[in-house]
Amino acid sequence: MSATIGAPLLLTYAALVCTLLSGAVSLLAVRRHPGFLHFGSFLFLFFSGAGSIGAGGWVLLANRTVTDRFQLGLPWLDWHLRIDPLSGFFLVLLGTLVVAISLYGPSYTREFGRGAAAQPLPPLGVFTALFILGMQMMLVADDALVFMIFWEMMSLSGYFLVVYQHQHAANRHAAFLYLLLAHVGALVILLSFGVLAAFGGGLAFDLMRAAKLSPLWATIAFACAFAGFGTKAGMVPLHVWLPDAHPVAPSHISALMSGAMIKMGIYGIVRVSYDLIGSVRWEWGLVVLIIGTASSLLGVLYALMQHDLKRLLAYHSIENIGIILMGLGLSMIFIGSGHKMLGTLGLVAALYHTINHALFKGLLFLGAGAVLYRTHARDLDQMGGLIHRMPITAFLFLVGCVAISALPPFNGFVSEWLTFQTALQAPALTDGLLRTMIPIAAAMLALTGALAAACFVKAFGIAFLGKPRTRRVGRAREVPVGMLAGMGLLALLCLLLGVFPTTMIEAMAPITQLLVRDALPSATAQGWLWLTPISPQVASYSAPFVLVAIILVFGVGRLILKRGAAPARRSDAWDCGFGHLTQRMQYTSTAFSQPIRRVFRGVWKVEEHVETLADAGSIPRVTSLHYSVHTHDWAWLRCYLPIGRLVLAAANRIGFIQTGNIHTYLKFSFVTLLVFLWIVS
Amino acid sequence: MDSQLIDWVLAAAQGLLFIAAAPLLAGWLQRVKCHLQNRGAPSVWQPYRNLSKLMGKRMVLAENASWLFRAVPYIVFGVTLLAAAVVPLVAVHLPTAAIADMIVLVAFFALARFFTALAGLDIGTAFGGMGASREMMVGALAEPAMLMAVFTLSMTANTTNLSVATEYLLHAGLVLRPSFLFALLALAMVAVAESSRVPVDNPATHLELTMLHEAMILEYGGRHLALIEWASQIKLMIYSVFIVDLYFPLGIATDFSAASLSIGVVAVTAKLMLLAVLLVVWETVLAKMRLFRVPQFLGFAFMLSLLGMLTHVVLETGI
Questions:
Q1: With an 8 Å Cβ cutoff, is B139 touching chain A?
Q2: Of A388, A417, B30, B272, which residue is the least packed, with the fewest Cβ within 10 Å?
Q3: For the CA atoms of A290, A339, A443, A301, what is the dihedral angle to 10 degrees?
Q4: Which of B107, B132, B164 is the closest to A413 by Cβ?
Q5: CA of A86, closest CA in chain B: separation in Å?
């Protein structure tokens, strides 16, 4: 059907080919020219990312939908492809991250090929390419078959990336858990598509859109999709794989996973509920809102207890997915109750936070990777003082920290502010329960934001400020320019999306037109300077103004105060007159979060051990003191371990049918086939 | 165009008046406190003298201070200044009020706290870390209570814009809304915690272990310290004006004639002086709490604002 092939699709195909070429180049990375070919692989990734941005941006800005279909595989199952504004938006998100890691990757991955623990680089390149290809194809899929094939490709290649450094048993364990939950999720998604396909009469999304579902079946389809995609997104309580899997992958892959892969779960939820099922109900919204609130609060509380930088960031992904789900939940509640405009606002807030999280979490993971690259430390309590040794990395990481803590004038604040504004319109609803629940959820969002700020003061303060806690950290150097460029790109976008929200919301109008058939004309009606989601009377925010004012005060203040003043003198810090301060007297990350651990005790299972060795003299004197604290996730202890034990017990019970005799197995297959035929006929 | 220009000039003037008057409020507070506690009182102008003394001093920086440490005072002051520009002091309808609403205002304070806490960690002393860690805990608990109280107000007035809300309340007359009473109490408690007053923190103490805010800024000196001190005086003033505006908006100017502007100035001065007396009484009769009583204090504030919200939903909607 060449008539309908639009230029955006051709661009997408070019991007896909580039992704494949990138994989092929890494596969060919022979011993003679590893550096060159390795570089080539990232060059193709750069083009692939740029192509995705181009195709997605084109569709989004021109507000057009392009489709294509071709015959591949089974003769009666065509492959349907389609790019509409929603997939365009996610393509842009994915493409941006791919471009950033293609700048960052060449220097970063070289580290893996060095030293005693050298790893072969080709698998990393190949599976990275397949991983990205899976996401790109999944976004342009327009039938359940293509969608599931590439969904699986994404999940499976993700497994190989998580297990890349397989010498460590913890990594293998994390990868297994990831694989297990990815497949449980995929099965549930398949069930959801099954319901939709049964009513629509085919696997193509167009048939599903046209299907008329009864409220019960629609709810079943939604519940399955929400559970399945939610597993990938990492919502509580299906999140346990995420904090294990994301940190152990190489950092640029962690950035892709936290930035892009879990967003595919959000894409799936939006695609199935708003587009395929079509008519969302407020009851779904309530469930999504509650799970979102729980995810955001628990995510940030668990993050606060971490002292492994990458693990801390991974827990923050759970928090941010929670915030996105809160926006989606509010949107569903309002649309389900007939307030289309407010529903649109919620959807815009959710999608805005989706791209924001991709940017700042990508940036933070790349920053953590930069620290890892130079210091080989992931534990915050070994770092310190890196701002002196790696000033640019520190600055870029700080931008990410401010953005993720939802502070103005960066992008995280805009989307949280929009979520707050949506929640504050709760009086428009008639249901008393909802009117009470929504403000409470908003207060929990406020608590989440404040705790996130505490957590990132800790992360940045312990890692980059103060004095170095180990010698290796004290000798760290700034990372190569390519890595800085990758981070700098994302940091710049964090600022731009924070300062020009009106432009972004205008660009997002085609998505809401497609999904809700409504847009937010009032949000941008006052010009680019003023963001007024409902009306200027209700609320307004001017990010450019805030930025300019802060810069002005900064500049003018320094100019006035420094004029004629004597240069600052350097001296020792205040030590209470007791003498020399050492780096071990600094607060550690465990110490920093102690007050919060005490206030919210009960959220974690906290195990504290104190070992004291006393001197056996006449005067009791402590010679050594060892303190350790471990926090455990209740969801894992109370939910997953019992299920795991149950599965093991059940497996032991039915183990007797496993005879090891091929004839018996063939008999089993034959009987199963007969039973299925009987059911079908 | 011309009237718009006048609006902006007036807004700038109000902002400048705000930051210029903030040390005066601190001086007044100190004076009343001394009188109440039978001590010799310094002049109300003392805070200005302190600031100008600090401005002129040569700076001493700790060996380990990074660029962030030097930038933080300017960031904190800039953000606080911006917050001051948004709050209607003398008149409503000023164009600056549209820059930020109440939620953004709370976020400004969060931004200032974020950077102050980072500065506390920068030197690498135990005091800085202690102050930062405690301040972030207090902040994390105060912010939701504050926002909840703000939500109660904004749901009544259907706006989060401070100027519009003030005007709405001005025209609502002397009705007593139960939800407002709860929200007012919560807001007052949060304001006490956020502006580092007794019983959460003690601005006068120099016993290191009892400090929160002071512990973070222990290493600052000279003009940096002046900026931070000034910013915290402005912050106290913002909270006071915030409470005064929303609960007793009587007298605030709604047009820009000289008569109503002067009434506005007189009214706000009288109200702030009265509020300061209340704060002094509160600080004199209460003792500073142990750190881990603070969560209970703020939890109580949160509960109050939640009650206010529920009261609003149950009693006041549809009216």
A1: yes
A2: A388
A3: 40
A4: B107
A5: 29
Distance CA A345, CA A505 (A): 10
Buried b / exposed e along A358-397 (16+ C-beta atoms within 10 A): bbbbbbbbbbbbbbbbbbebbbbbbbbbbbbbbeebbbbb
Amino acid identity, position B275: L
Q: What is the pLDDT of residue A1?
A: 39
Q: Which two tokens stand for residue B168?
A: 């709405």
Which of B57, B68, B168, B317 is best to mutate for the A interface (most A CBs within 10 A)? B68
Given 3-state DSSP classes, what are the helix, strand and coil percentages for chain B, each rounded to the nearest 5? Answer: 75, 0, 25
Q: A with B: how many residue pairs have Cβ under 8 Å apart?
A: 264
What tokens does A548 get? 């300019």
Residue B186 has pLDDT above 70, yes or no: yes
**What are the structure tokens assigned to A159, written together?**
């497994």
Contacts of B307 (CB under 8 A, 6+ apart): B182
- Which residues lie below 8 Å from residue B69, measured CB to CB, with a gap of 6+? B61, B62, B119, B122, B123, B219
For residue B72, list chain A residues with Cβ-Cβ distance below 8 A. Answer: none
CB distance from B16 to chain A under 8 Å? no
Contact between chains at A432 and B314 (C-beta distance less than 8 A): yes
What pLDDT, on a 0 to 100 scale, did the predictor assign at position A116?
67
pTM: 0.94
- Residue-wise pLDDT for A611-620, tens only, equals 888 877 777 7
Q: Per-residue pLDDT tens for B166-177?
A: 888 888 777 778
CB contact under 8 A, A576 and B208: yes
CA-based max dimension of chain A: 95
CB contact under 8 A, B124 and A530: no
Whether residue A504 is predicted with pLDDT greater than 50 in this model: the reply is yes
A28 pLDDT band, cuts 50/70/90, is: confident
